[in-house]
Amino acid sequence: MDRVLNVVCEEARAALLVPVAAVLLYDERHNALNLAAGSGLPPELAERMKSPQRYLYEDYVLKGDPVVVISDLRAVPDRRVADLCLHYNLCTGAGAKMQREGQFIGVLAIVTTGGVRHFTAEELALLQGLADQAAQAITNARLFEETRRRLKFVQSLRNIDLAIAGSFDLRVTFSIVLDEITAQLGMDAAAILLFNPHTLMLKYAAWRGFRTGTIERVRLRLGEGYAGRAALERRTIHIPCLAESERDTVQAPLLADEGFVTYYAVPLIAKGQIQGVLEVCHRSPIDPDGEWLEFLETLAGQAAIAIDNVALLDKLQRSHLELVLAYDATIEGWAHALDLRDKETEGHSRRVTEMTLRLARALGMNEEELVHIRRGALLHDIGKMGIPDSILLKPGPLTPAEWEVMRRHPQYAYEMLSPIAYLRPALDIPYCHHEKWDGTGYPRELKGEQIPLAARIFAVVDVWDALSSDRPYRPAWPPEKVRAYLKDEAGKHFDPRVVEVFLKVLQEEVLEEEAHGN
Ligand code: C2E
Ligand code: SIN
Ligand code: SIN
Ligand code: FE
Ligand code: FE
């Protein structure tokens, strides 16, 4: 842009044979003209013209003529200007408006030295032509810059979006938001305060560019300090000059220690709820435009969404965990009730469950599978709830009719558990624990590896525990007899590999107990 403007000045000087040419750009916010480039201007004068030139705009541009000539600058009504021109020996000035699609862009000005000069109509037309060309070049350069800036903003927003989608860790998201803000908005420091809806307090959660570490300890009540006010009033608070603002006793000392001059606090609001406050600070005055502010507020919106997302996920995970815990407590309660009804020895369910998990681990099943195996083992005989006491608790052998009823218990388990989505992956054991390796089991007469591994594992543990315990229909067997039975049934009732590993696990247990002096 500067290069474009310098070329325009050089062209004007050469074409019109004048010693001085300058481009003054229109500054909408101050309704003034700003010196943007000059050629042949005395440096001291250029320096003095850096501030917005309001009189030039009001006295010459607003008057309306596309080209204005001031034949003797040393005699203009504004004494200060006249004196300066006298000092630098500036005589005749001519300015042509630069306009583009009805928009006033600025003025291309030329100045003579050493004497008043009369510009001909052709010369003024040439000046106007140069101004038109300059207007086009400036518009193009601005469009290019704006496009580049917008692209960078879009890229920033995209980075933040990715951070929000890719991470449920607020610290990561905040770190990216703060990086983008300080980099894209050119600010010295930025911070995010989180609002706690229970205590109604704001607390710094992340920050960049602060020199002192004291902000970590800051707590702001809603309405307290600038940030507290932004949250309470739900609007951006802008302090252009902290030193000149009414002293805020809570935040001002800290901000003064940091040497900040300019300060913004933007409320973070998602779904109508205050999530926190975004603060941005700079150690020198800044004069941002509307687009800058819009970008700041867009980033604040993104940060608010990120906070809301994480809070939502947190809540979801917590309630899911509560549900799982509630379910598992229910399952353990059921298993215990089953033990009682079956007149099992205390802790039977827990015992077979623990042994099943141990054996499953020894056979290389992963932790996720074990979760379901645990539930399945606890509930393996839930189907016995459908068996009448007269059969379940019968002291002697069962009649063929009674057996027929007893053998329905795995099917009952399937009917009870399969509608519960949460327990469906745990069904293998309750449904298949009476299948046999040789295909002579029930209810489906599955064979070999058709039987789910969990059920093959459980069957060994179940029979081991049943034979080791007193039953209404027979007393407990001694351990050697149980082991011999399991070995004998390997390849008939049981998966031989499972029996082999189970006997090793049993052996380890015996050795462990001996080592502990039992
Ligand atoms: P349970 O008593 O928990 O027995 C589980 C499994 O251990 C039995 O499945 C069987 O494979 C094995 N088992 C248990 N006791 C013995 C036994 O004395 N000898 C042999 N060889 N194996 C035994 P099964 O046979 O499918 O029986 C399922 C359930 O039916 C048993 O669970 C029990 O509740 C009931 N049941 C089985 N036989 C009788 C019986 O003779 N009288 C009564 N009242 N109930 C029986
Ligand atoms: C039963 O066997 O009837 C009680 C449940 C269990 O064995 O774990
Ligand atoms: C069965 O599982 O149905 C019999 C074995 C047991 O009660 O543990
Ligand atoms: Fe059973
Ligand atoms: Fe059992």
From TrEMBL:
Record-given protein name: Cyclic di-GMP phosphodiesterase response regulator RpfG
Hydrolase found in the keyword field: yes
CDD domains xrefs: HDc (cd00077)
Source organism: Neomoorella thermoacetica
Protein encoded by which gene: rpfG_8
Residue ranges of domain HD-GYP in the record: 323-518
Coiled coil: none
This protein's UniProt keywords: Hydrolase
UniProt KW Hydrolase keyword: yes
EC assignment: 3.1.4.52
Bilayer-crossing regions: none
